[in-house]
Amino acid sequence: MSADHLSKRFGGRIAFDDVTFEVGRGEVFGFLGPNGAGKTTTVRALGTLIAPSSGSATVAGIALEPENGVEIRRRISVMPESPGLYLRHSVVENLECFAELYEISEPADRVERALAAVNLADRAHDACGTLSKGLRQRVALARALLNDPEVLFLDEPTSGLDPVAAREVHELIDGLRRRGVTIFLTTHRLEEAERLCDRVAILNTTLRMIGRPDDLRDRLFTKTLSVKVRDPLAEPDRVFAGLPGVDGWRQDGPGGYLLGVSDTNLAAPAAVRALVATGADVLSISEARHSLEDVYLKLIDDEAVGR
Amino acid sequence: MTRLSRRRVRAIFTKDLREFRRNRSLTVGMGIIPILFSIQPLITVLTLSSSASSALRHEHVLLYMLGIPALVPALVAAYSIVGERQQGTLEPVLTTPVRRDELLLGKALAALVPSVAVAYLVFGFFLACVELFAAPSVAPAVIRVPDLLAQLVFTPLLAGWSIWAAMLISTRANDVRVAQQLAMVASLPSVAVIVLVALNFIPASLVTAAVAAAALLLLNRIGLRLVSATFDRERLITGSK
Ligand SMILES: Nc1ncnc2c1ncn2[C@@H]1O[C@H](COP(=O)(O)OP(=O)(O)O)[C@@H](O)[C@H]1O
Ligand SMILES: [Mg+2]
């Protein structure tokens, strides 16, 4: 799947703009952004529900054009932001209807397997209106699995769920990932993107950054080594300045130093050697990690400043 | 035009029928309208004495009941699209390979079948009551072969047109109640013509029947195309134009 300078405007209002990315087969691609960033609109555009205003895209290997709508929808499935179940119908009745709409051969068998995949076999004949939010979300996921999609769109699959229900959904998504399903997942939750996705795109109307969660961190922040010694160094500048791979340093509490480094593999051993040479007792030396949250907040912050 | 999938039409049909059956406000409405349209003629006919039956010669009591197929399906069909939209079930359906015409045809049939069934049922009930309980010479004055035939033929034709008109409204409306009220208003011209014929203001001749049937057939033919043309996926999903 790919998108090339894809944009969508509603009248004068821009929902998302100039979005370009590629998703490989079997990849779990995360679309991360705050509310109103354009995630749902992107999913709808790629899912052929609304026409993009400009740009082009390929979904499941097929060009995103109005005349290809049916062919694309045959190969994908979308789990929308709200499950959209027929609440007066039982779980099985909901799924059977969609199995027929996908013209699946042996629908009863597929419905049963989809229910088993989301651990809902025992609730099959309950009316959807009687299910909790988490269970409804699982029914919607089962529905999205019926046609064995090449690309599965999940729009905020855990929004509004309690932590336990969210974890169950995470585990289900993990299972799909192991089975090699290509997944396009939107979320405003960082730990979800970090936990589930191979690559993440950060969206706030326009794409801010794409990459593996690790890479995003590296690209946004200079890496730092955190050094702790028992007694404060007499002349820290003499110890740290000029070490290979070290760009600079600053004090971080008594006996603590933060080194800005370009290459940890070079800097860490050099720093240890230099410290030992001055007779300092090294308590710890570690690479300071930034969570994706830092990346995210930094990006959103930059934007606020830019406005 | 590409071929429609019968299987998908049937899936929509089955699902909608089930939904209508379990939706209290719809079943109540489908019950009340026939009662309103059959009670008054029933009382008139059953309280008529034999000697007064000649007064019926210039009226077509049976035709009043064509109001049932004109109004009942409007109520259901007006619900069928905006109702799904309001409860958020339209978006998932539209993400499947279902074509617009398959969806609309399935929905129209789901409104047609129960409405026509209700209309015929009430009609049969009315005939039975007249045969059993009306004064001796009243029944033959009320039950006339041409009126019976007209009833049989016009029930589905009227229902069909009401359904397309109501669905047209349903694709544009933002609220179920408003859609249903507008659909009732849209059915009023049909009801007005029915009443005029029943009261013999418009002569109930073969020519009248032929013209009315031709007009309804034409409307039913263009109905699907009309609704299909106003069915805008994007507007239905995002709720804006
Ligand atoms: N139908 C619409 N008409 C006008 N603006 C819309 C419409 N749908 C979405 N938007 C706007 O597009 C932006 C993106 O919305 P959305 O895709 O729902 O964001 P997200 O899913 O990331 O929260 C929002 O600013 C929203 O107000
Ligand atoms: Mg959203």
The share of residues in helices of chain B is over 70%
Gyration radius over CA of chain A: 25 Å
Shape of chain A: elongated
- What is the second-level CATH architecture of the largest domain in chain A? 3-Layer(aba) Sandwich
Reading the helices and strands of chain B in chain order gives HHHHHHHHHHH
Beta-strand content estimate of chain B: under 5%
Q: Output the number of helix runs of chain B.
A: 11
> What is the SS-derived class of chain A?
alpha/beta
Could you give the order of strands across the largest sheet of chain A? 6-7-8-3-9-10
Number of domains of chain B: 1
Structural class call of chain B reads: mainly alpha
Give the helix proportion of chain A (percent range): 25-40%
Kindly report the name of the CATH homologous superfamily of the largest domain in chain A.
Answer: P-loop containing nucleotide triphosphate hydrolases
CATH topology of the largest domain in chain A: Rossmann fold
Overview of this protein structure:
The complex is a heterodimer of chains A (307) and B (241). By secondary structure, chain A is of the alpha/beta class. In chain A, 37% of the residues lie in helices and 28% in strands. Chain A has two domains: 2-217, Rossmann fold, CATH 3.40.50; 222-289, Alpha-Beta Plaits (2-Layer Sandwich). Chain A contains eleven helices and 14 strands. In chain A, helix 3 (91-101) crosses helix 4 (107-117), helix 4 packs across helix 5 (133-145) and helix 8 crosses helix 11. The mean pLDDT of chain A is 90. With 241 residues, chain B is mostly helical. Chain B has eleven helices and no strands. Chain B starts with 5 loop residues before the first helix and ends with a helix. Chains A and B meet through helix 2, strand 6 and helix 3 of A and helix 1, helix 5 and helix 11 of B. Residues 39-40, 81, 156 of chain A line the site of magnesium ion (MG).
